[in-house]
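Supplementary Methods S3. Input chains for the assembly prediction are listed below.
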Amino acid sequence: MEQIKKLLDSKQIRPTVQRMKILKCLSEKKGHLTVDTIYEIIRKEIPTMSKTTVYNTLSSMAEVGIVVPIVITGKEARYELNTVQHHHFFCERCAKVIDIEVQCDHFCKGEINGHKINELHGYFKGVCKNCLTPEKGRKL
Amino acid sequence: MEQIKKLLDSKQIRPTVQRMKILKCLSEKKGHLTVDTIYEIIRKEIPTMSKTTVYNTLSSMAEVGIVVPIVITGKEARYELNTVQHHHFFCERCAKVIDIEVQCDHFCKGEINGHKINELHGYFKGVCKNCLTPEKGRKL
DNA sequence: TTATAATTTGTAAGCAATACAACATTGTAA
DNA sequence: TTACAATGTTGTATTGCTTACAAATTATAA
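Predicted structure tokens for the full assembly:
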């Protein structure tokens, strides 16, 4: 919790209750949360919490690089804390998002084919290990 | 045009005028088109064209692997013909999507960390070469 | 405290995408 | 060719995520 406060201070963002809660959410749940999920979680503690605030907060946090939006399905965005560079695996069966440790050489260089790289996003789609096992899911 | 017809035949999909037009669009414009763009282009030739048909067609084409949806912004999907494996570069300034030739080892293996891979999506975000040049855009 | 700036809130509006039913077209069988 | 079933297309209505906006609230500075 102190960590989160320092993170906000370092970016000159006032650590309001709402903002702290949102980041705490992403920190504890280990990311990949939809706006609605975050909203519902926090609403239990702060009933007056507005979904607009969640949108606003995540949007400004993304701008300064504290959080990262994950866009895979095109239906709804998910968010995670901006930590080390990694990819994602999206299970088409259970819709879960799994972190994949992968480093990309091009990203480190900061440019590719003359284009300046600011962000790198990579994800696999398929069936996760868990859904592949006969006991827990159907074999593909 | 004959190519497109054969492509549809191979997948047992009836080559209707609408479907042919949509694929022709993607073929000629070299992909990265939004549903609305495709719709507007075709509407000039076929005024009765329905946007639902564009959605339906692209959706079923994606299912059999003829086209690939590109989801980057989360605002709207783009589509391209399914050719060789590659990534995309999204310019944050001019919103253009550029093909990037990159092959991923993991994808070839078909699995990662025990998860079965069906699709691989990768994209960079940044400022494209064109927007970086002082004459045409502002330096970042 | 009082004034000013920054945040939050709630509702309204925008917009991509989907659902659905009516209509049209194509393929098949007699 | 005709009748009928299956497949495709169209247009409207609806859903659901996201943004706009202005009022209400809270924090900061004088």
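The mean pLDDT of chain B is 90. Chain B touches chain A at residues 69, 71-74, 77, 89, 91-92, 98, 100, 102, 106-107, 111-129, 132, 140 (CB under 8 Å).
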